[in-house]
Amino acid sequence: MELSERKLKILQAIISDYIRTAEPVGSRTLSKKEGLDYSPATIRNEMADLEEMGYLTHPHTSAGRVPSDKAYRLYVNELMDKPELTQNEKAIIANRLRDTTVDFEKTIEHAASILSEITNLTSFAMTPKKTEDVIKYINLLSVDEETVVLMIVSESGKVSNKAVKMSVPYTEESLELLSKTMTYNYKGKTVSQALTNNIIANFETDVVAMSGMAEDVMPNFMKTLEDMLNVNLYMEGLSNIFDIPEYSDISKAKSFIEMLTQKDEITKKLIERDDGITVTIGDENEDSNLQDCSLITASYSVDGKLVGKIGVIGPTRMKYSKITSIIEYLTENLTDTFKLESGETADESSEDADENGPENQGEEINE
Amino acid sequence: MELSERKLKILQAIISDYIRTAEPVGSRTLSKKEGLDYSPATIRNEMADLEEMGYLTHPHTSAGRVPSDKAYRLYVNELMDKPELTQNEKAIIANRLRDTTVDFEKTIEHAASILSEITNLTSFAMTPKKTEDVIKYINLLSVDEETVVLMIVSESGKVSNKAVKMSVPYTEESLELLSKTMTYNYKGKTVSQALTNNIIANFETDVVAMSGMAEDVMPNFMKTLEDMLNVNLYMEGLSNIFDIPEYSDISKAKSFIEMLTQKDEITKKLIERDDGITVTIGDENEDSNLQDCSLITASYSVDGKLVGKIGVIGPTRMKYSKITSIIEYLTENLTDTFKLESGETADESSEDADENGPENQGEEINE
DNA sequence: AGTTAGCACTCCACGGTGGCGAGTGCTAAC
DNA sequence: GTTAGCACTCGCCACCGTGGAGTGCTAACT
After folding, report:
1. Is A183 on the interface with B (CB under 8 A)?
2. Average pLDDT in the B28-38 region?
């Protein structure tokens, strides 16, 4: 059976009505809609067809129709119109995003919380996976007789460090030599390359003279590199999931929250997802705990390379169009921020962040 | 009215029964208990007295008795016996705690998750408030023509850094001079002292020759110091709160989770709490969302000075005795860890962490 | 052939009812 | 002071019965 013009219209009406009200939609309600000037009976016939085709379901005989995941998929792919955000809405997002005084991590966390507040959904944001980050600079710095600080600076401007207890005496000169040798050996390599290259072995043969120092430093070097690969996940608005009617059942809510709080799992899944805006709806999600939810994620980039993810999780019955627009705009903004400022010095704007007046801060973007 | 020996016995029996079963306790049940060889009627009389004195309540006429917060308080203060953990239980905690390969932050997070798993409650752990941390060392390091890295090392071994974009040209020598001057000025001061001293103003007058560089560096210095004051809060086992019968009501559960996920608020409250083991029961908590819960917190220290907190939140009906012992042991262990290793190099044990065999890892401490 | 009115039917939601069980409070006897 | 006995209270639960919303089908209409 083909999806006639009229069927599409009806389907769209059902979907948007259901998204708005969370109530099954009946034929009478629909027939009163603008642009659907048919009797309830006619609409019922069409709905029966749509149900047969898998676009609608029926909680029980005498209830209205509810869109299926298949219907949402059609809606997202073809039916919905993605509205441009208004200037005002954009200003709210941009202002709040700029209103971060601290570092990169905090900005990401902040972005998640903005997203959650605006959408009234649970949001999350993942810092970039830094596998491809390139080592720029390695330095060892004397702190006291037995402590040095190992410091790794990467092309993306990230600085990682670790205090190292030295078991052998050292001089400023030997420290500098070791720093230079390490920089020479690893500069230009990505973090993951450096890690796979079996660093320690290489070193022992290369620079026998200071093998004692290297023995102290290298394990810490590896650990710091590993640390640099770590991805942080921030989650905000967790309690919003209680607005999903499916989770008014406590045991379901519990297992859902259990799943969401397993950051490692979530992170893995986020990494696997495609870059760009990605929507998965209901049973398109593998995880059984997610089958009543939809996920919208998008990626932002840092320095044009490293890719982080941000997104929301909510009921399949969510405002796909609006939310997609919001996330799109938010990630564009993030990417811009991290291009412009090239690294950590992203905070001159803290003084004039409220130039559009503080009255914008608390507003909410609706509909 | 006095609390006779017999009343205390009955009260204790009710409390421990109720903690175990979560069901109101009736007179018949009690009279069958070891050591309470009175008829139900006698016990009923005593219970009526206890209720009048405020130690028991009554969900409704024909239900058994339930301990009041006042009763729990009495129990915690006087009635309960704090059992020493068995060697096996201690080994489980110690082993799992040692099984952290990474840094300080991760260890704290790990401790929270251990605590949550063992107690089946929601746990949290706060990293120390570093107000009292003493600045040991400040360094500026050239990365490229326009970027330097500012690094602050503290007595407790914590290293903080920040990449700084320089708006004026600089030489290695001027960098070193600035580092030395800063170190000279701030070494020995605590982070909070340094912050209150109006650093920037001081500097402009002192070292006119490099005021351009200082103008770039000082704001970042302040921000980094502020950053050092940040306290991180980790929370684990959030979903365990659904086991509290009070929160089988969705709207209550929602507002509860809302409260718990406001990290700033929670952090503030944790900081305010006394050091050492502290138990607050039900309505002893100011927050209205916490009035059905009890909180047990304890403090651990790092380097003998900085104090962090760790604790659990659960139903007033929790196993106070067991949980107190667990938290006590855990914090002792944490304090030891951070004394021994003095700083960041806390990970040699990663290889032999499972010396007692991996079969211990999954076990749970019951009763 | 497509559309519509009419009607019987289905099923949920909701409020009331009655029996059961657990546990109490009181009284009177031990 | 302790206990047995008994009436009473209340929550829980299962069981209606009714009302409303919405459907599917059929037959009539355009």
Report:
1. no
2. 90
